[in-house]
Design a protein that fits this description.
Layout lengths: L9 E4 L2 E4 L10 H5 L8 H13 L5 E4 L20 H6 L4 E6 L3 H11 L1 E6 L4 E3 L4 H16 L5 H15 L22 H20 L1 E3 L11 H12 L11 H7 L5 H9 L3 H23 L18 H8 L5 H8 L7 H19 L3 H9 L6 E3 L15 E3 L9 H20 L8 E6 L1 H6 L3 H10 L1 E5 L5 E6 L2 H4 L5 E6 L1 H6 L1 H15 L9 H13 L3 H4 L3 E3 L9 H7 L5 H12 L1 E3 L7 E3 L1 H8 L4 E6 L11 H4 L3 H7 L7 E6 L6 E4 H13 L2 H8 L3 H20 L5 H11 L3 H10 L1 H16 L7 H19 L2
Parallel strand pairs: 3-4, 4-5, 8-9, 10-13, 10-17, 13-14, 17-18
Antiparallel strand pairs: 1-2, 6-7, 11-12, 14-15, 15-16, 18-19
């Protein structure tokens, strides 16, 4: 702006204007980021929507992609008035919103606060992460060992190679008892110990290999290819669906050799070589079966125009009469499971065929046109298409769920299993002692996708049971007696996202009542940590026990996020203390069931509760969005906040529950960051897939690097090798460096800046040579962008 005019970014094509929505406007202003309530939009933001309505005179607006900032502007949570900024900005413009199908919670906010009708679109096609470089070499060495394990000459030599390669790949951080290179020789240990070492390495690389990752970006209106559909269908097939009388494919395959799949998963997680081998064989058999099914309907271009049902095929019918197996059964037999029962697969195969039809159906562009023509667009649920394939096909108007129905009985059952694994892991690592307090982060989308699993985890830790009425509405809680619980009640501090607060206010009421019920229970303090801490806080702060037991916190009404992510994305923060102050100021509003509908500023109570925390905990429930894909996860992570508040300044343990597959696991945050880095940022399949999509792909790579640094800032759980290896991939490789620079110089400059910032802030220790190269590169990129 020249000081007189306001700039509106965009270009007009006849009667179509394509514009770029302005940013929030306070990214680089540390003081505005710190405000407890969100700041008003700047003049440029207001001018943009005024231009669309009054000057361009648009008949309708299409907000393209997930997501903008209009619906998150200050104002009431629901029921906008003329004083609320979303209402004032969109004014009388009809708004259509193209929204990711896996994000129903924020789509609901877009509906409620910006009056938008949504059209869902598919998330990027998913593939298995695969293996590369040293990890691929490890898989080949393990394969050699499987054939020569009893050969006393070759077997030990292969194990030595496996150990040294595992160290090169930094797997020593994930395998606690991996032998050191200095004094280990596999000839000196027995075969059982060799199997143990190989089993643990094998288990680790299979976690990396089988993890789903988005490859490239989704093009609106283009359905996945047959190859892209297979990975999604394999993951749909791995879940039991008892409500539909469907057994998972891995369960049926494991049963054919007399094994229970849950036992196989347990053995696999413990690194028992035989079970890791079996789990891998079951995965390969599942992929082969799904591939055989999909190939029945694939044309010469690798796409699916029409799904041919295997049960309608006359040739298959006659083949069945002659005793011939169906292609998917034959694929499982060929993979080494000759006794699999074809009849037990029938329900699952019908379901997989239905899901395939939904995946390749294409109504995204049609849905946009229906809305812009003012026609009715069919509604559909949003969520994770693997857990709930009814989300598909896309191109429909998204909705969430009935909030009073969660947590469901199934979610409670899954959550109890996760809580059991969590407490087992914690007590094992703490000489049998249970943690006294756990800090939880609750997300709106995650609870919609899982029907309230993480909400149920909070209640389970406190020892409270949700109770549904005759209509299935969960509106009561009851205390589980200590004798039945069999362990102490664990205290919780719950930080709810702004979206969770908007969508699930009744569930916040449920949690608050349950926690206060536990605090008021007359029980021994060594068996009820909720009561123990609430009594201490009541005395310290001079409040009642019930007031001191407030444990459910969020932003003030109409305000979202801790703005930690914004500060890190823009580099405008001085030190970690500023980030921690932002978190405490913006998230320190307590929900009180005794005063429903109000979010009270209770920063001191929030700090008092957090300083007792031993463990911070979050859930990962979807393979599509992981902890470095978005800034939200670290934005609300309180690990270093807790460390700064604790009297002993000890950093709490950080854990993540991963329920993205049927084999749910609890990992440390550092393990999860490493797994994410290996499967995405450092994985050629991921970054080459992103680069194939052009300039936006480079920005996606840079975003994951920046989000990785975000975890360093909020939790300090990123290993040095992650930055070092990323520098080798993107900076030290001259050819890759040039590709990034040519494709998107601005994003490449941000990448160079992130590396320099990570080093400057003490998160990455590297050579002077690397830093000098980055500094020279920054100057070169700046000149290129400025046209020098």
């Amino acid at each position: 702006s020249g000081g007189q005019n306001l700039v509106v970014y965009g270009k007009q094509f006849g009667n179509v204007f394509i514009g770029v929505q302005p940013s929030f406007g306070y990214e680089g202003d540390p003081m505005r980021l710190l405000f407890a309530k969100s700041a008003s939009p700047h003049h440029g933001f207001a001018a943009y929507y005024t231009f669309l309505e009054k000057i361009f005179e648009a008949d309708a607006v299409l907000h393209f992609g997930t997501h903008g900032s209009l619906e998150f502007m200050p104002g009431k949570q629901v029921g906008m008035s003329g004083k609320c900024y979303p209402d004032r900005l969109i004014n009388s413009l009809p708004s259509a919103y193209l929204y990711a199908a896996n994000n129903p919670s924020e789509a609901t906010i877009a509906k409620r606060r910006s009056y938008s009708a949504t059209v869902s679109y598919l998330t990027p096609p998913a593939e298995n992460a695969g293996l590369y470089k040293g990890l691929k070499e490890l898989k080949e060495l393990i394969s050699s060992y499987q054939g020569l394990r009893e050969n006393e000459g070759r077997g030990p030599a292969i194990v030595n190679s496996i150990v040294s390669t595992a160290w090169v790949c930094n797997l020593d951080k994930d395998i606690k008892d991996l032998p050191t290179l200095d004094n280990f020789d596999a000839k000196d240990v027995d075969q059982e110990r060799r199997d143990d070492i190989v089993g643990k390495v094998y288990s680790e690389i299979m976690q990396i290999e089988s993890r789903l990752l988005p490859c490239g970006l989704h093009t609106v209106g283009v359905p996945p290819t047959a190859e892209e559909a297979i990975a999604t269908l394999v993951n749909i097939a791995q879940l039991d669906r008892p409500e539909d009388d469907i057994e998972s494919l891995p369960r049926v395959i494991a049963d054919s050799i007399g094994r229970d799949i849950n036992e196989v998963y347990r053995g696999n997680n413990q690194g028992i070589l035989a079970d890791v081998e079996l789990a891998d064989s079951i995965v390969q058999a599942s992929r082969a079966a799904v591939r055989a099914l999909v190939m029945q309907s694939t044309d010469s271009e690798g796409r699916i125009k029409e799904v041919r049902s295997i049960f309608d095929d006359m040739g298959a019918m006659f083949g069945g009469m002659m005793g011939q197996k169906k292609p998917y059964t034959q694929a499982i037999i060929d993979a080494g499971f000759p006794n699999v029962e074809e009849d037990r697969l029938a329900n699952l195969i019908v379901y997989i065929e239905f899901c395939l039809k939904q995946i390749v159906a294409n109504n995204e562009l049609g849905g946009i046109m229906e809305l812009l023509n003012g026609e009715f667009l069919m509604p559909a649920p949003g969520g994770d298409p693997i857990r709930n394939p009814d989300v598909l096909p896309t191109g429909r108007n998204m909705h969430a769920l009935d909030p009073s129905s969660i947590p469901t009985a199934a979610a409670v059952e899954v959550s109890e299993n996760v809580v059991r694994k969590l407490l087992e892991k914690l007590s094992d690592e703490n000489d049998g002692a249970y943690p006294e307090s756990i800090a939880f982060t609750l997300w709106g989308t995650d609870n919609i996708k899982t029907y309230g699993e993480s909400l149920a985890q909070v209640l389970a830790l406190v020892g409270v049971r949700p109770v549904a009425d005759s209509l299935g509405r969960v509106n009561k809680v009851e205390l589980i007696p200590l004798e039945q619980l069999g362990r102490p009640r664990v205290d919780v501090v719950v930080s709810c996202s702004g979206v969770f607060r908007d969508l699930f206010i009744n569930q916040m009421n449920l949690m608050d009542r349950g926690i206060k019920m536990a605090a008021e229970a007359d029980e021994p303090l060594d068996q009820n940590f909720v009561r123990k801490h609430a009594l201490e806080q009541a005395e310290e702060l001079g409040v009642t026990l019930r007031e001191a037991a407030a444990r459910v916190f969020s932003n003030s009404a109409g305000s979202y996020s801790a703005n930690v992510g914004l500060a890190i994305e823009n580099g405008g923060w001085e030190d970690e203390g500023q980030l921690q102050e932002q978190f405490l100021t913006r998230k320190g509003f307590a929900f009180n069931a005794d005063k429903p509908g109000m979010m009270e500023a209770q920063a001191e109570l929030f700090k008092s509760a957090l300083k007792n925390v031993d463990v911070t905990f979050q859930n990962l429930d979807s393979s599509e969005i992981s902890i470095t894909d978005v800034s939200h996860y670290y934005d609300s992570d309180p690990t270093k906040v807790v460390q700064s508040l604790r009297d002993d300044k000890k950093k709490p343990m950080s854990l993540m529950a991963d329920t993205t597959t049927a084999n749910a696991q609890v990992r440390t945050l550092s393990e999860t960051v490493r797994l994410d880095a290996r499967t995405k940022l450092l994985n050629p399949k991921f970054y080459e897939g992103m680069l194939s999509t052009g300039y936006e792909g480079v920005r996606e790579i840079q975003k994951r690097l920046r989000n990785t640094m975000g975890w360093s800032a909020t939790a300090g759980e990123v290993d040095n090798f992650v930055f070092e290896d990323a520098n080798d991939v993107f900076i030290n490789d001259a050819e890759m460096q040039q590709r990034l620079l040519d494709t998107n110089p601005n994003a490449f400059r941000d990448m160079v800046t992130t590396f320099l910032e990570a080093n400057g802030r003490g998160y990455w220790d590297t050579s002077d040579e690397n830093i000098e190269r980055l500094q020279e590169l920054y100057a070169e990129v700046e000149d290129r962008i400025e046209g020098v």
